Amino acid sequence: MDSLSALAHGFSVALTFQNLGLAFIGCFLGTIIGALPGLGPSNGVAILIPLAFTLGLPATPALILLTSVYYGAMYGGRISSILLNIPGDEPALMTTLDGYPMAKQGMAGEALALSGVASFVGSFFATWGLVFLAPQLVKVALLFGPAEYFALFTVAFATLGGIASRNQSKAALAAGLGLGIAMIGVDGQTGVPRFTFGEVHLYDGIDFLVAIVGLFALSEVFIFLEHRGTEKATGDSSGVKVGRSTVPWPMLKSTLPTMGRSTMIGFIAGVLPGAGASLGSFISYSLEKKLVDKDGTFGKGDPRGVAAPEAGNNAAAGGALVPMLALGVPGSGTTAVLLAMLLALNITPGPLLFQSNPDVVWGLIAALFIANFMLLFMNIPMVGIFVRVLLIPPRYLMPAVAMISFVGIYGISGSTFDLIVMVLFGVLGWGLRKLDVPLVPVILGVLLGNQMEANLRRAMTISDGDWTALFASPLSIGLWLFAFVGFVLPMIAGRFFRVKVKPAMAEEMDPD
Amino acid sequence: MNLFVTRLAATAVTLASLTVASFAAECIAPANPGGGWDFTCRQVGKSMQDLKLVDGTVQVTNMAGGGGGVAFAEVVNKRNDDGELIIAASSATSTRLAQGAFPGNTMDQVRWVASVGADYGIIAVAKDSPITTLPELMDMIKADPKSVSIAGGSAVGGWDHLKVLIAAKKAGIDDVRTIKYVAFDGGGEAVTQLLGGAVQAFTGDASEAKGFVDSGDIKVLAVLAPERLEGDFASFPTAKEQGIDAVGANWRGFYAPGGISDADYDKWVKAVGAVYDSEEWKATMAANGIAPLDLRGTEFEAFVKANIDEIAAISKEIGLIK
């Protein structure tokens, strides 16, 4: 077992007092950064690069600090998703669907603790995957050409039905809206600007973080403003129940199979450079819903709906390190920053990295294990502190949310233009909530639309416009079949098990 | 709650003091973290700090948008006399200036400081490809343009695309618009697609491909440099040696706001020059496949001007601009 002895060597590199301290600081800062709306893992890592340089850290400790922040932010993103219905970063988007209803039912503590455990399971096993499977998985990533990526994104949209809303057509409208927003910007395949109205800020398209913070956080603030003066807005929160801050054993037991499946799916999605953590958590959630949601409890506070996306996105975070280390191809915004860091430290990622810099690679992997345990032990006791956010009266909480949103978005781009776009998205989100249109498919459209289009057009360029190229490999045929089954099966199954559903969205919308 | 807020505040204060306290210099990377401009800012900033050319650290600001256009407009309109500021630039900047993709902005509105190196273009194929020389590849394209898809990391009309067109033009392909170029998000993704077999050839910078060249996964057909590169790339022939006189250099360097004093301008030219002369920078260049390109002050300004004129001419020829 070469890998195991190499890993043991890695632990000998990573287990120094200084490195443990850095991992602790990284995990703590990461959790906070992840929880703040607008600040996600990629900003968190970017913010801390100067710190690593200032401290004059050598390669391995610097990477330990930054990957701890990365894993920490992936853990932290769920906190505001569950407590406030505002995703802390894009992979935590799906966690709002069941996490927030759980919090409203007085089970915020359980939801936070459960998602902490799910995050741990996801990233723990993904890190083992990184240890044993990295070289083999690189071959999987190479199987995906443009046609296969297009089919993969089709799977994501085909399984969208019924995920965020009981009303399929509203979900489809929302996804269409998101896809439309994704089209803004310079088209990479022709170099022509689309829907930019000569505005240079729009050339790179709409940053999905701006869209997420506007649609979720600011619209929440607008809804609060709308209800100002009424009892709903000003009423004190003494009656709020936060639940216990541990996971009851039966709940944990019932979610374990979910965590296992979601970890695998998330990990594979993470390994594919064009997919990433958001797709991982999304497909984990939608598959789990299709597999186990017999009573229609998903979307209303089902613990499995919290465990699936959290295990999925944390596993994807581990998976995304595979192409970064072994191919030098970043699978996500965060790994792009980590890659830049590696280059800045004169380490060339690529197929030879495992041989040429074993200290760095195995020290890093050992640090991931350490960070993982640290995060678990840090997060479970902190649940009791986090849930207290719910006890803050909305009249104090909402202004703070607005402030953090503005600071966070300004911090990303340093441009006031993005702030205006964010406010526009806030108004849009407020309008969509009034119309009961779900917001999650909008974000999915924005997140995945560009990649989906780009891959379709790449496939078409390569095949000279021959559409059959989309179905040319066994892998793409498999993905298309999967998409077809995912799209059609619920319609047929729905006829037999039609459950009378009360308009659940109306309750979900109220922010109190 | 109080504890949480206190901790949060403490974190914010620590972060603020660590990142804001000692700034005397700022480098704008006109893109998100992780790209080439970000690398240029961070790496040169780190060297300036290590060589004690600036007080404290060099703050790197990521100002993404418009392929660098947002940062360019911001510098011209709002920070025209900020003597503490430099902005990372490369061939991508001159390409967009040449194609009028920064609406209303021209190269005269800023002052060009110095280059820190060049990344020469390469054209490569997968290791098991039957093609072994650049003329062979060009002959295949001549015979049937549809048979070869070339992947690159820039958008259509971007530098990776233009490099291939320059080479094709020199190889005697008249209608370069028939060449199939597939745009990917960055050189890494494009190389991955080459390895996966989705495309037949790759165009990019030497530094992007270094990891794969070292491992033997890709075969470099030609380096688009005036003469052979040093170090690991020394064994690969230039296009010129193979009878195709094409050079494609992705230079990296900096510009500064247009309204700064000559003293501030000279300060920056000296500081960037000192980084270039340092052993540390030479090691960085060697490790990342960056070739020497040492142009400072007015010399650099003239180079950028010539670069923009050249790109404008090709872009017109292939109909990208009128």
TrEMBL record, chain A:
Keywords, comma-separated and alphabetical: Membrane, Transmembrane, Transmembrane helix
Pfam (any one): TctA
InterPro entries (alphabetical): DUF112_TM
Residues annotated as transmembrane: 47-71, 111-134, 140-164, 171-188, 208-225, 263-285, 324-348, 360-380, 400-428, 435-452, 472-493
Record-annotated DUF112 domain positions: 20-444
Protein name: Putative tricarboxylic transport membrane protein
Lineage, broadest ranks: Bacteria, Pseudomonadati, Pseudomonadota, Alphaproteobacteria, Hyphomicrobiales
From TrEMBL, chain B:
Protein name, entry field: Putative tricarboxylic transport membrane protein
First and last residue of the signal peptide: 1-24
CDD domains named in the record: PBP2_Bug_TTT (cd07012)
Lineage summary: Bacteria, Pseudomonadati, Pseudomonadota, Alphaproteobacteria, Hyphomicrobiales
Keywords from the UniProt entry: Signal
PANTHER family: TRICARBOXYLATE-BINDING PROTEIN (PTHR42928), UPF0065 PROTEIN YFLP (PTHR42928:SF3)
Highest taxon in the source lineage: Bacteria
Keyword RNA-binding part of the UniProt annotation: no
Family: Belongs to the UPF0065 (bug) family.
Keyword set includes Cell wall biogenesis/degradation: no
